[in-house]
Amino acid sequence: MSPLARARPDLAAFVPYASARRSGLVGAIRLNANESPWADNGDSAALNRYPDPQPLALRSDLATLYGVAEDRLWTGRGSDEAIDLLLRGFCRAGRDNVVGLAPSFGMYRIGAQLQGAEYRALTLSPAAGFALDPERLLALVDADTKLVVLCSPNNPTGELHHDVVGWLAEALAGRALLVVDEAYIEFAGIPSATALLDRHDNLVVLRTLSKAHALAGARIGSLIAHPDVARFIGRIAAPYPLPLPCVAAAIAALEPAALERTRARIATLVGERRQLADALAARPDVRTVWPSAANFVLARFADGPAALQRALAAGVVLRDVSAQPGLADCLRITVGSPYENETLLEALA
C-alpha cells in the first residue's frame, strides 16, 4: 500500500499553486513573476527575485549530510512547517487523530488541535526514566489514526526511543505514518532512523539545522520520507518556503570547514552536558537529573519556581516545564558554553 493511501482523500487530485519559479521556465529576462527588475543598493544576493521552491544546491547538500536520495527530501521553514504540513495533509478535521507521547514537544499537540484532529498521548513515567512500551503506544492507534509521533531524543526529557522505531514502523504498515523527530540526534551519537527508510515506506524522519548546526534563526528543517510523501508535502507547501539569505546561510554551514567546527562544538557540548548534569545532581535542592541524549538536561528541584527565580535574578533564563505531565518542579536547562553553565551553577548556589 502506498504511504499516501492515508493522506486526506480530498487532496488526492490537489493541484498546487503554479508559481513563476515552479514552472521551470528559464530565460535571461524574467518578466513572469512581477518582480522588481532592480536590486536595492548593496544587495548582492539578488533579493529582488523570488527563491526556488526547493533550492537545488541546498537540497543536494542536505541529502549528502543526511545520507539520503534527494527525492526523499523536502526542506522548509524549520521542522515546525513539516509538522504542520503532515497534519494538514493527512488529518481530516473532526475525524482523524494523532498518537504521541507526554511529556513531549508541544507543537504536535498544538498542530493537531489547529487542524481539528484529536491528539492522543501515552504518558511516560518519570520514575521509569520515561521508558516507552511500544505495545501500549500501539494500543492507542485505531482506524482513524494518521500519524504516530516519536521525538528521539525526546524534548523535554532527553531520552531516546530509536530502539522501537523498526518494530513500530512494521506494526503501523498500512495503518499510519510513523514520524520520528530527530531534532537533537547529533548530540546522541547514534545512527539516524533514516537507515530504515528503505524497509518502511510509512516512516518519516524530521531533521533540522537549528540545534547542532547553530541556525535556529534561519529556520531550515527537512522532512525525509518515501519519495511519494516528500513530493506530496512539496505540493501542499507554500510556493516559496525558504528565503534566499537563509538558504545562503545553510549552504555556508554545510561546507567542510563549517561541518568540522560543528563536530567540535558537539563534542564540547556533550562534555559540558555531562559536567552540568553531575554538578546539578550533587546539589541538595535537586531531586532528580535524568540522563539526556540532547543538548539539554531535565532536573527536578525541591522548589522549581524558586530555582527559576534565582537563575533569572542572575540573568539566566531557563525553561519551566512543570505544566507537562509528571514534571512538577522540573526545569529544562540548555547546555550552554562553559562560562554560561558556570554562571548558572553559581546563580543556583
UniProtKB/TrEMBL annotation:
<feature type="domain" description="Aminotransferase class I/classII large">
    <location>
        <begin position="32"/>
        <end position="348"/>
    </location>
</feature>
<keyword id="KW-0663">Pyridoxal phosphate</keyword>
<dbReference type="GO" id="GO:0000105">
    <property type="term" value="P:L-histidine biosynthetic process"/>
</dbReference>
<dbReference type="GO" id="GO:0004400">
    <property type="term" value="F:histidinol-phosphate transaminase activity"/>
</dbReference>
<dbReference type="InterPro" id="IPR015422">
    <property type="entry name" value="PyrdxlP-dep_Trfase_small"/>
</dbReference>
<protein>
    <recommendedName>
        <fullName>Histidinol-phosphate aminotransferase</fullName>
        <ecNumber>2.6.1.9</ecNumber>
    </recommendedName>
</protein>
<keyword id="KW-0032">Aminotransferase</keyword>
<dbReference type="Pfam" id="PF00155">
    <property type="entry name" value="Aminotran_1_2"/>
</dbReference>
<dbReference type="InterPro" id="IPR004839">
    <property type="entry name" value="Aminotransferase_I/II_large"/>
</dbReference>
<dbReference type="InterPro" id="IPR015421">
    <property type="entry name" value="PyrdxlP-dep_Trfase_major"/>
</dbReference>
<keyword id="KW-0368">Histidine biosynthesis</keyword>
<feature type="modified residue" description="N6-(pyridoxal phosphate)lysine">
    <location>
        <position position="211"/>
    </location>
</feature>
<dbReference type="InterPro" id="IPR005861">
    <property type="entry name" value="HisP_aminotrans"/>
</dbReference>
<dbReference type="GO" id="GO:0030170">
    <property type="term" value="F:pyridoxal phosphate binding"/>
</dbReference>
<dbReference type="InterPro" id="IPR015424">
    <property type="entry name" value="PyrdxlP-dep_Trfase"/>
</dbReference>
<comment type="subunit">
    <text>Homodimer.</text>
</comment>
<comment type="pathway">
    <text>Amino-acid biosynthesis; L-histidine biosynthesis; L-histidine from 5-phospho-alpha-D-ribose 1-diphosphate: step 7/9.</text>
</comment>
<comment type="similarity">
    <text>Belongs to the class-II pyridoxal-phosphate-dependent aminotransferase family. Histidinol-phosphate aminotransferase subfamily.</text>
</comment>
<keyword id="KW-0028">Amino-acid biosynthesis</keyword>
<keyword id="KW-0808">Transferase</keyword>
